[in-house]
Amino acid sequence: MTLKMIVQIKTAVEKHWVGDGFPVRTMFSYRSPVINASPFLLLDYAGPEDFKPTDKTRGVDKHPHRGFETVTIVYAGQLEHRDNAGHTGKIGAGDVQWMTAGRGVLHEEWHGTEFSKAGGIFEVVQLWVNLPIKDKMTKPKYQEITADRIPVLQGDGWHCRIIAGNYLGVQGAATTFSPINVWDIQAKAPAHQKIEIPEGYSTILLLRRGKITVNDTATLEAGHIMFFDTQGDTIELSILDDANFLLLSGEVINEPIVGAGPFVMHSKEALQQAYDDYREGSF
Asked: Alpha-carbon distance 265 to 142, whole Å?
């Protein structure tokens, strides 16, 4: 076993509002490159935010995407979705929405009606996952993955939800276009854990709660995110305070990325075509 070296740590960033329902901190983005983030393009961390009860619909109006997937993990609150491919859904705490925009989709997201009326804490993570060039124009797809469908590994104060990929022989709930692991982990302190990750995979750790030391060299606190080198196959965690964290890893897609706004393509020509198709109403 060889440790994956830490290459970058980012602390909490200022939040900005997406629509009127999502107080977002963009932890990283392909527009401001970090080392070895592929196949992950972006991570937005919304909340935790305490919303007051209302009869108003809070959220984001209809908008387009092409060339990638959005993965939305709800930790608290409720989220509703509708798109022009005919998919609708409502997810709550513990649920995941995995939307493949592919060749083009128009969708809208807003707080669930029940949550809006009751109010409460809202906390969501949304990932953008790149699609290989051969799959960028695939048919749009929607996976609504409820908490009861997500396999769990647990023991000795360790609770791991395998949203995607494979961990210790257990297959995750989501289907993906390239090899990706999305593991949602809770760990009780004090504890020490070694986690194996395939050689060559990019690896990212977002700490939502608690305090941990990684590879006996760096300590993370809530709201921090860490990026690892692709070389190596193990990370070591010391849990100092009860921790909740998201661990992402995936096979690097060594292809060009050309994106702007809601589209992520592989060339200027493909990006321009996305805008032309959207304006012409062909999504």
From this structure: 20
